[in-house]
């Protein structure tokens, strides 16, 4: 694992490129034409399904959304609105601190924990137009508040409470996903290793970009883990989801979260639920901030399709693998559509 010891090239903060006022995007960030965003005539009427998490029927709406779209917007989710706003606020303040203050938290590819500007360690890779901060909530042995920013002053306590409330919401979504498979409500949680789940967060900061039609804030990928609960920017759109052969731009409802299932849920559900590719487009007018909360299985557990979902008619679609092994691909190669989960196919 030595190759993960450091980045292959010196790290450049995208925020510094943006702040330089240069009107040209450096070639390292220019995507091949097929991957560039297209801004014309995106059908705005289509939007991902909305689920009221308090609805008695929530399991069936969640289940349908995760089969058809891999994504839904959650309302009535139990997370306090003031907390959603203060979490956005402390992170915006953090990214606006002087560069020297942020550099003290620079991360390495070994754990990704801290302030970062790239995913993957492939030398010469085309990079994404975004910086981020990555941190752990669980398991307790990985959680270290000392690695969370000390400034702004309320950040640590806000993030702590945010982690608690989002964990609760994720547990609820796990129950709904289990019920939606016709299993008992605790089944997926047990499949994840019970109490020993991995919980972490990546706060994404997408500075303004002089040539947004040439690059992406985050390249197309499916999330490698369990479930992702995204708090989108309250003013700026940017998340696009692959659906029906094209890209759909999500129109976030206010005070809602965007929930999606990751590759491990696709594996455990034997492909009944699908992790879906998504990406982020940037713009020249306004920066964008989003918080991606990841609720993952215990990382040293061999995970394969749950036996209840395997039959002669529907054989196991994936070979078992631990999340630690799986994540290593992504940590080395960075975002690559759905190629990682595809490579797990049991022929
Ligand atoms: C992610 C992600 C989307 C966004 O962090 O995995 O897909 O809108 N983020 O920032
Ligand atoms: Ni994602």
Automatic annotation (TrEMBL):
Fe2OG dioxygenase domain: residues covered: 196-297
SUPFAM superfamilies according to UniProt: Clavaminate synthase-like
GO MF annotation: an example: dioxygenase activity
Cofactor(s) in the UniProt record: L-ascorbate; Fe(2+)
Reactions catalysed: jasmonate + 2-oxoglutarate + O2 = (1R,2R)-12-hydroxyjasmonate + succinate + CO2
Family named by the database record: Belongs to the iron/ascorbate-dependent oxidoreductase family.
Protein name as catalogued: Leucoanthocyanidin dioxygenase
Species of origin: Dendrobium catenatum
Taxon lineage: Eukaryota, Viridiplantae, Streptophyta, Embryophyta, Tracheophyta
Gene designation: ANS
């Amino acid at each position: 694992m030595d190759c993960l010891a450091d980045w292959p090239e010196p790290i450049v903060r995208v925020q510094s490129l943006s702040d330089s006022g240069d009107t040209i995007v450096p070639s390292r960030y220019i995507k091949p034409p097929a991957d560039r965003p297209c801004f014309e005539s995106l059908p705005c009427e289509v939007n991902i399904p909305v689920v009221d998490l308090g609805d008695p029927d929530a399991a069936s709406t969640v289940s349908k959304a995760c089969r058809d779209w891999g994504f839904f917007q959650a309302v009535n989710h139990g997370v306090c609105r003031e907390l959603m706003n203060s979490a956005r606020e402390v992170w915006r303040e953090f990214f606006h601190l002087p560069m020297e203050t942020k550099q003290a938290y620079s991360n390495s590819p070994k754990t990704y924990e801290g302030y970062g500007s790239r995913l993957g360690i492939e030398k010469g890779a085309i990079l994404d137009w975004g910086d981020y901060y990555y941190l752990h909530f669980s398991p307790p042995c990985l959680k270290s508040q000392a690695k969370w920013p000390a400034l702004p002053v309320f950040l640590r306590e806000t993030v702590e409470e945010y982690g608690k409330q989002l964990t609760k919401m994720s547990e609820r979504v796990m129950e709904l996903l289990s019920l939606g498979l016709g299993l008992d409500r605790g089944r997926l949680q047990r499949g994840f290793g019970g109490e020993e789940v991995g919980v972490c967060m990546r706060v994404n900061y997408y500075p303004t970009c002089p040539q947004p039609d040439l690059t992406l804030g985050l390249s197309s990928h499916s999330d490698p883990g369990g479930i992702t609960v995204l708090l989108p920017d309250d003013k700026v759109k940017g998340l696009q989801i692959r659906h029906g052969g094209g890209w759909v731009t999500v129109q976030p409802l206010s005070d809602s979260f965007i929930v999606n299932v990751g590759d491990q849920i696709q594996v455990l559900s034997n492909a009944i639920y699908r992790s879906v590719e998504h990406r982020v487009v940037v713009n020249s007018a306004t920066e964008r901030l989003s918080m991606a909360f990841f609720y993952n299985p215990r990382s040293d557990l061999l995970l394969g399709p749950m036996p209840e979902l395997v039959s002669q008619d529907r054989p196991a679609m994936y070979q078992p693998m631990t999340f630690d092994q799986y994540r290593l691909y992504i940590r080395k190669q960075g975002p690559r559509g759905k190629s990682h989960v595809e490579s797990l196919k049991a022929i």
